[in-house]
Design a protein that fits this description.
about 375 residues, alpha/beta, five-stranded mixed sheet, two-stranded parallel sheet, about 30% helix
Length: about 375
């Protein structure tokens, strides 16, 4: 075999199988330790915000517009899983007075180091045709998959409620639009949290949403608007924040609502049939008479034999009023219904293995034969 054929064989027989094995191991660690990891991540965020507070008190920092966590490939190449943390004003990387810190991501990248060691062992079987430089390039190529867990952790950790409850939050001046982003240094980054306190005209927002543009609403903030009786069929609202808004009698059928936030929203008789609602949060929302027929909220990784991205978190309806809601045929594995009102709700044909109904009001709710949560010990 020539060198190209050897690299192709190594990639197929060694690189890919070991990569999948590594990522599934990391997935299990992340899901089992996510709350502890989130605490550490929030400590990191508090540390940079503390520095921002001091700079603002000294008059050396404008209102905060961005905080970015950047993976540093040069650090990875030298065996250090260090992220650069930067706090900047609304001019972003043009900020003349940035505030900097670091975040240690060893908890995730140690799996990459172990994987590199395994690759090197297998490379020896190829008679020196695969060298250390090849392994290093493979390591840096695979680093983007590990990086996805830093994005997932940041998204899981930071919420509006956390920011408001932070001990010295009121002492930090934020711009009207503030974003937390995770990416690579001076390269693409992804929004994991967005705060936008600008006053929005409900009629303008409703008209815009009803245009159902393919990418415009992802990660956007639609807090406190009234979009009731709207036709949003097939809309893409991944990780959008619609908390405290009203969308009564609105149609979202077939929409992609992964990671969207609807906490304390008024969604009476809204139709979410056939929507993707993994990681969505409907906590304390008014969902009386709403429909989630055939909605999909399967957590974790879809294909157990192939890793594509970090597993989804379960959907949450904790504390929501779901009186008379329709869940026929929905996939609600591990869904959180803690303290929800489910009087007269219909779960006929729904799959809800592992769901939590602790403290939920279930009077008059309908379940398939033998699948009542009290019988299945799902409370």
């Amino acid at each position: 075999m020539n060198r190209e054929e050897i690299l192709q064989h190594f990639t197929k027989e060694v690189y890919e199988p070991l990569k999948n094995q590594m990522l599934f191991t990391l997935e299990a660690f992340f899901q089992n330790r996510k709350h502890a990891l989130a605490k550490t991540f929030c400590n990191s965020l508090e540390q940079i915000l503390g520095k921002v507070r001091l700079m603002q008190q000294e008059g050396n920092k404008q209102a905060l517009g961005y905080i970015s966590y950047s993976m540093l490939r040069t650090e990875l190449a030298n065996g250090r899983a260090t992220y650069l943390v930067e706090a900047m004003d609304k001019t972003w990387f043009m900020d003349r007075h940035p505030c900097r810190d670091t975040y240690n991501a060893d908890w995730a990248f140690r799996y990459l180091d172990e994987w590199e060691t395994e690759l090197s062992k297998h490379a020896k079987k190829y008679g020196g045709r695969i060298g250390l430089d090849d392994i290093q390039r493979m390591k840096l190529r695979a680093a983007i998959h590990i990086h996805q867990y830093i994005i997932a952790l940041a998204r899981f950790s930071v919420t509006e409620e956390w920011l408001d409850a932070m001990q010295f939050a009121h002492e930090i001046e934020l711009d009207d639009v503030f974003e937390l982003r995770v990416g690579e240094y001076w390269d693409q980054s992804e929004v994991v949290f967005k705060r936008d306190v600008r006053i929005k005209d409900s009629s303008v927002m409703k008209d815009w949403l009803e245009e159902k543009k393919p990418y415009d609403y992802i990660h956007e903030v639609f807090r406190g608007i009234d979009g009731s009786q709207g036709d949003y069929e097939g809309i893409r609202l991944q990780y959008a924040d619609l908390s405290g808004s009203s969308f009564n009698n609105s149609i979202f059928t077939g929409g992609n609502l992964i990671g969207s936030g609807w906490n304390k929203a008024c969604l009476i008789e809204a139709d979410f049939s056939s929507c993707l609602i993994q990681e969505a949060r409907f906590e304390q929302a008014n969902l009386r008479g709403a429909s989630f027929r055939d909605a999909v909220a399967v957590p974790g990784i879809y294909q157990s034999e192939r890793w594509e991205r970090p597993g989804f978190q379960p959907v949450s309806f904790a504390g929501a009023d779901l009186t008379g809601a329709q869940f026929q045929g929905a996939y609600l594995q591990d869904a959180d219904f803690t303290g929800a009102i489910l009087q007269g709700a219909d779960f006929m044909g729904a799959a809800f293995e592992g769901a939590c109904f602790k403290g939920a009001v279930l009077d008059g709710s309908r379940f398939s034969l033998g699948m009542h949560p009290a019988v299945q010990s799902l409370t």
